[in-house]
């Protein structure tokens, strides 16, 4: 196996996704017939890699199903297992697989996709999404157990925004990559690699700027309530302007910077890890809880006093606040943040 290339195997093409009210094995096979137009995306023929992966231990659980660490051809892989209990789970698997197959999406700060497959069990049909495995886990887990110095903070932040910048960027040429909006960016959906850099993961809610390729579900309020941008919470987001989705991602990134900065030691002081708005909303906030704090009161997580005395934290704090501005058009874009983080690193003599 090579972890940085697609698996060599027999492939079939899946045409454009069509919404269904129910799902069975036959439905997926029906969706797996090539239209002959070349517009489909590639999926491993069923009963290939799924039978070869040895599940070792469960490492996570999400709304779609479970995540396992497995072994395949002697290497560790991560296996996200979707069940077919609902149409939503099936479509999330199809969507994420399709996004990972987008032309030119591969980037060192985007989670490496290996394969997707279907496995029948005696109880149900399971949908596998197989990717690189990162033993440090999510940024959320990493920050809970790890304190940062200035260099590690900048490395985490710069690599995260580099991945986001690649998603957000349209690449023109013979092979074109559309812009992609994540729509559920949070510390739990960013993974930390062995070298202390990050990669963006969990693209099950992502959409592309080519709306003929990936449909936009009718519900604007998708994602994690705690991280939802003001325009998502009050449903004022302009669905007809793709840039609106991009700028909602930038609000999320501002909150992630806040999470990182709390864990960076300065003057011998560091805050314990907390989720954004931990002291302003309940543990499991409702839409109304978040809307009142974010939209009506226009509150944001607190800026720690000590950050003003540290040059790196002070400058990153400015980026953070410009990212989560209430008005989406006032927020910094991912290329702008990437450029400014590179400048901060250069001024501090830190090589990223």
TrEMBL record:
Positions with a binding annotation for ATP: 80
Membrane-crossing segments per the record: none
Cited InterPro entries: GS_dom (IPR003605), Prot_kinase_dom (IPR000719), Protein_kinase_ATP_BS (IPR017441), Ser-Thr/Tyr_kinase_cat_dom (IPR001245), Ser/Thr_kinase_AS (IPR008271), TGFB_receptor (IPR000333)
Residue ranges of domain GS in the record: 23-52
Location relative to the cell: Membrane
Protein kinase domain mapped to chain residues: 53-348
Matches recorded under PANTHER family: BONE MORPHOGENETIC PROTEIN RECEPTOR TYPE-1B, TRANSFORMING GROWTH FACTOR-BETA RECEPTOR TYPE I AND II
Name of the molecule in the record: receptor protein serine/threonine kinase
């Amino acid at each position: 196996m090579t972890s940085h290339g697609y698996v060599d195997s027999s492939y079939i093409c899946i045409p454009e996704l069509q919404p269904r009210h129910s799902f069975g094995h036959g439905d997926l096979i029906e969706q797996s017939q090539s239209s002959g137009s070349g517009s489909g995306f590639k999926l491993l023929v069923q009963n290939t890699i799924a039978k070869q992966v040895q599940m070792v231990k469960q490492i996570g659980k999400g709304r779609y199903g479970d995540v396992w660490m497995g072994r395949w051809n002697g290497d560790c892989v991560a296996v996200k297992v979707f069940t077919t209990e609902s149409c939503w789970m099936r479509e999330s698997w199809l969507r994420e697989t399709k996004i990972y197959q987008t032309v030119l999406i591969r980037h060192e700060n985007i989670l490496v996709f290996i394969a997707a497959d279907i496995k029948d069990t005696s109880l149900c049909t399971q949908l596998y999404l197989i990717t690189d495995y990162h033993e440090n886990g999510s940024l959320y887990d990493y920050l809970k157990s790890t304190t940062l110095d200035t260099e590690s903070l900048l490395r985490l932040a710069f690599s995260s925004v580099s991945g986001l910048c690649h998603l957000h960027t349209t690449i023109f040429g013979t092979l074109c990559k559309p812009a992609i909006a994540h729509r559920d960016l949070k510390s739990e959906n960013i993974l930390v690699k062995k070298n202390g850099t990050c990669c963006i993961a969990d693209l099950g809610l992502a959409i592309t700027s080519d709306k003929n390729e990936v449909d936009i579900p009718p519900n604007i309020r998708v994602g994690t309530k705690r991280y939802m941008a003001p325009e998502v919470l009050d449903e004022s987001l302009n669905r007809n302007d793709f840039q609106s989705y991009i700028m909602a991602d930038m609000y999320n990134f501002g909150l992630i910077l806040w999470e990182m900065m709390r864990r960076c030691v300065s003057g011998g002081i560091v805050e314990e890890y907390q989720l954004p708005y931990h002291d302003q909303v309940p543990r499991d906030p409702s839409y109304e809880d978040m809307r009142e704090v974010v939209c009506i009161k226009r509150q944001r997580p607190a800026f720690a006093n000590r950050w003003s005395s540290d040059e790196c934290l002070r400058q990153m704090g400015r980026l953070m606040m410009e990212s989560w501005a209430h008005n989406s058009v006032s927020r910094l874009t991912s290329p702008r943040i990437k450029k400014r983080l590179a400048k901060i690193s250069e001024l501090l003599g830190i090589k990223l």
